[in-house]
């Protein structure tokens, strides 16, 4: 089983390799990283938004990066997994 720091570094590398040239610079939202069901859930957003937390700079619908802590697999989350990082609304 990998530790949280190692898993988060995998997410950073994954995000950098998946970034497109036409996107604003992206960064990991370290304040919101959490563990759930054997996964490290690593949200990200534009670096500009994360520096200011100004909602007008926020990218919408950024599915977090999921790192399987047992196997080290890294991928983007899917719609079916949204319950892992969203609080259900009443």
Compact description:
This protein is α+β, with helices and mostly antiparallel strands and about 90 residues long. Helix content is about 25%, strand content about 20%.
Overview of this structure, please?
It comes from Streptomyces beijiangensis. This is Immunity protein 35 domain-containing protein. This protein has one domain. The protein has 2 helices and 6 strands. The mean pLDDT is 89. It has helices at 4-18, 47-52; strands spanning 26-28, 34-36, 39-42, 44-46, 65-68, 74-76. The strands form 2 sheets. The protein has a 4-stranded antiparallel sheet, with helices on one face. Helix content is 23%, strand content 22%. 17% of the residues are buried. β2 (34-36) and β3 (39-42) form a beta hairpin. With 90 residues, it is an alpha+beta fold.
Low-confidence stretches: none
Biggest β-sheet description: 4 strands, antiparallel
Helix-and-strand structural type: alpha+beta
Radius of gyration based on Cα positions = 13 Å
Give the overall silhouette.
globular
| The number of domains | 1
Total strand segments: 6
Helical coverage, percent range: 10-25%
Number of helices: 2
Salient structural properties:
single chain, 90 residues, alpha+beta, two-stranded antiparallel ribbon, 2 helices, 6 strands, 23% helix
Question: Mind sketching the topology for me?
Answer:
Blueprint: H1 4-18, E1 26-28, E2 34-36, E3 39-42, E4 44-46, H2 47-52, E5 65-68, E6 74-76
């Amino acid at each position: 089983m990998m530790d949280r720091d190692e898993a988060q570094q995998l997410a950073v590398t994954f995000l950098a390799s998946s970034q497109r040239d036409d996107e604003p610079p992206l960064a990991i939202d370290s304040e919101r990283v959490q563990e759930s069901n054997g996964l490290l859930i690593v949200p990200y957003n534009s670096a500009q938004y994360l520096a200011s937390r100004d909602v007008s700079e926020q990218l919408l619908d950024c599915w977090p990066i999921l790192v399987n802590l047992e196997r080290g697999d890294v991928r983007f989350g899917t719609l079916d997994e949204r319950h892992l990082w969203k609080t259900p609304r009443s």
